[in-house]
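Case study 2.
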Amino acid sequence: MTDPVERIRAAFRLNLEQQKKQAKDLLKAAKAGDASALTRFTAVMGDARDKPLGPGSLERDPISLKLADAQFVLARELQFSSWTELKSHIDSLDQARTAIEDKRHPPDAGSKTLHLRCGSDIRSTLVEAGFSGDFLEVSYPYCHGPVTSAPDHFEREARFIAGLAGKHMNVSYEDALTRRYEEERALAASAASYERIVLWMEHDCFDQLVLVRCLAQYASIETPPALELIGINHFPGRRADGVPIRFIGLGQLPTEAIRLLWDRRRSVSPEQLVLGKDAWEALVLDDPRPLAAMMRTGTPALPDLGRALHRFLQELPGIKDGLGVTERLILQILSEASVSLNRLFSLMTYERDPLFFATDLKLLEVVERMQNLTDPVLTRSAAGKQWEDVLSITDAGRAVLRGERDFLSLKPTPRWVGGVQIGPGHRDWRWDDAAQKPMSM
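Prediction:
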């Protein structure tokens, strides 16, 4: 069986001949009247031609379609403006692959370089892609656990990590605390130790909040001689069956894609440093309003940050049902049908969540919290293997989803949204998504 990681990476390793074949297949299907193929043409060409196609126009005259139309549809589905632009991207990937195979001069040679990432997912890929610099992982999940400026914040963070990963990955409180101290020491020392630091980040909440933590560090203490950012919110990929695959993170990408991204790095600007510092200072507060006000600006210096902050603040309890958005999405999926944990994770990751948020361990933690209530909103049927367990919504869950019961009235385990603690004895902050702001109830 193909390695699932390699299968995903293969989806981003676009091949021109394969794309040509898929365009021919799409054209053939459309001319034969295939409904899904015609829908793809209408979705793309209906808003791209000078004279937009009206609903049903392709069904009346599919024979007029040409191969160039099919190629254009494939390119637009991958967020390229044209087939020519798609071909250029594939050429660049091919050139990057050739450079790796020829073992050319390391791309990061010439300056003592540190590659900083919010996980270990590209550590080995960087080596395989020919990079020679050092690697630092700064991966505390600021989007999931407590984020405060309290004197004991390391201890709080370690307790959260041990609770999240302890029973699944055998991580003790002592191990977690040691890791947090070491991570922060390495971050603090990095500016003075390297000539160039490159931040590898994507657009989701996890990465963006680690990014503002790093920018705040460099803005407040010491900025390295060269501080650069590889920020990415999309990378084109398509499965073997022709369906575009959702870009989730850098760990999905093959070596040549990582090599290609190196040339797209940009120096971190003073405006970005200031925004990172301001966002971090707002994140640690026990009042979410300053962070929400920042979100509403669109954060132009760091465009991906605004969207990430929106998704993050949606984890506050909703004003109508008391659910964070992850909890609400889970109940919405289960209201349609019972699913396995594995299927739930797939749906959340690739289809339902507007911005990838819940890792596998985080999803398990949320599901367990929704089970362990005075009146559970879901049930979990053991299937022998944990990820095959089947989840079903309960009557209480349907009532909460309809807004007839408040989720917090069922006494869920306390949790954090940045510096805001959700639970008894704390201010009752709720998120009003229509108004795009938090409310104190």
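The first helix runs from residue 4 to 11.
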